[in-house]
Amino acid sequence: MESNELKPNTFFVEVSGSGLPEVDGLFVPSTAPPVESESGTVSTLGYWNGKLAWDRADGKCERSPALSYSNSYTSWRICRRDGHLAYDITCEDELPPTDREWHVYKKGVAPAPKVVLHHFDPREPCPKPNVIFILGGPGSGKGTMCQLAETQLGWTHLSTGNLLRAELQAGGPTAATIEEYITAGKLVPNEITVTLLRNAMEKATRTTGKTNFLLDGFPRSLDNMEGWYEIFGRDAELPRMLYFECPYEVLEKRILGRAKYSDRSDDNVESMKLRFDTFKAETLPTLELFKGKNKVVEIDASQDRPTVYALVGESLAEHTDQDLAAQPLTEKSEMLLGLRPYPKRG
Ligand code: UP5
Ligand code: MG
Question: What pLDDT does 2 receive?
Fold first, then answer.
């Protein structure tokens, strides 16, 4: 490979929980000068053995790069300040794995560290996201269409409902409150929802590098809107909103259809009625606010899924990577569109 064909290394790696303070911390793109490695590969700036490489951000390491790939051992390696190997992981991955346990080398200390890749320098403020709000009644297809846009069009789908359910599952200090509100079909207190949303957006931006977001089920109330202003400022331009219009009878039919397999505590006739009441009382006023600012695209979501998806795709086209949009449907997308059955559970 011609060394000058390599893209600059713009990743940052955060290592934590290793039990060795000299391993934990931030690693920045390596500035080691181009050299020929033990296996004969000539490195370029930010690379080692043809793969990306990093130095300790604090510069306190005998070895540069301090986190790099070894061709001879086919492994990613993190060293200590004295340059001795502390952790490694045998694989051919292009980037240091973040989804598996690292192996504790004899100069390391148990436990294996957690490794996180950042697409942006975590010491700098997070880049501004490009956001579209997706609103509609319970069962209008928000989740389905956002998942399609994620798998098929490269958008990042964040559902405040899913974030709340995940927090409930995790059983933290707010779990009991969340459960109580969701089952009653009411809106969970603003600080809980907005904090979860802000953290999830920041984490997704930093660790995926993607900035196109679909916020599914937000802002569900004028109160939520206040939370939004607190994070992004009152002067920032308001995002556009896609509103999924759908009559109650259709919504109820869909939710009761989903109830057969969803495990959601609010997928039943009683909670559904309460969710719809909340929707009318709390969410419709935000829709009106956005309409007044000419920010709403209304979509007739009572139509079949492929038709709704085509309309959603058109509305997102301006910010969608057209190469991705031209790809054939994945199996998951076909299932989401109802064109292929879901595998049998059990
Ligand atoms: N389906 C989808 N589209 C279809 C189509 N065009 N034709 C035929 N079928 C279609 O879809 C529902 C079902 O319909 C699925 O089976 C689907 O296959 C089918 P889905 O995509 O799941 O609809 P969605 O609009 O996402 O419905 P959901 O039930 O998730 O909407 P809710 O808005 O009620 O739920 P959410 O998870 O957002 O919120 C749940 C609760 O969390 C709220 O009630 C509230 O208590 C709390 N919450 C807050 O307090 N604050 C928040 O900001 C968010 C949530
Ligand atoms: Mg949903």
Answer: 42
- Asked if residue 314 belongs to a domain, the reply is yes
- Whether residues 142 and 276 fall in one domain: yes
Band of residue 346 on the pLDDT scale cut at 50, 70, 90? low
C-alpha 1: how far from chain center: 33
Taking the CA of residue 147 as reference, the ligand 1 atom at the shortest distance is 21
pLDDT in tens, 147-157: 999 999 999 99
How many domains in the chain? Answer: 2
Q: Residue 241 and residue 219: Cα distance in Å, rounded?
A: 10
- DSSP conformation class of 42: B
d(CA 12, CA 116): 8
Q: Cα of 293 to ligand 1 centre, how many Å? A: 25
Residue 274 in tokens: 């309460």
To which residue do tokens 């390696």 refer? 77
Dist CA 132 CA 334 (whole Å): 24
Residue 2, Cβ neighbours under 10 Å: how many?
6
Q: Does any domain span residue 125? A: no
Q: Which residues surround ligand 1 with Cβ inside 6 Å?
A: 136, 138-144, 159-161, 164, 181-182, 185-188, 193, 217-218, 220, 254-255, 257-258, 266, 275, 301, 304-305, 308
Structural domain of residue 45, as residue ranges?
3-118
- Domain match, 94 and 174 both: no
In the predicted model, is pLDDT for residue 4 greater than 50?
Answer: no
Order of strands across the sheet that contains 156-159: 156-159, 212-216, 130-136, 240-245, 296-300
Ligand 1 pocket test, pick from 135, 144, 252 with the greatest ligand atom count within 8 Å of Cβ, gives 144
Given 84, 118, 152, the domain boundary residue is 118
Percent pLDDT > 70 in the chain is 96
Q: Give per-residue pLDDT as tens, 189-201.
A: 999 999 999 999 9
**Are 160 and 309 within one domain?**
yes
Residues 66-120: tens digit of each pLDDT: 999 999 999 999 999 999 999 999 999 999 999 999 999 999 999 999 999 999 9
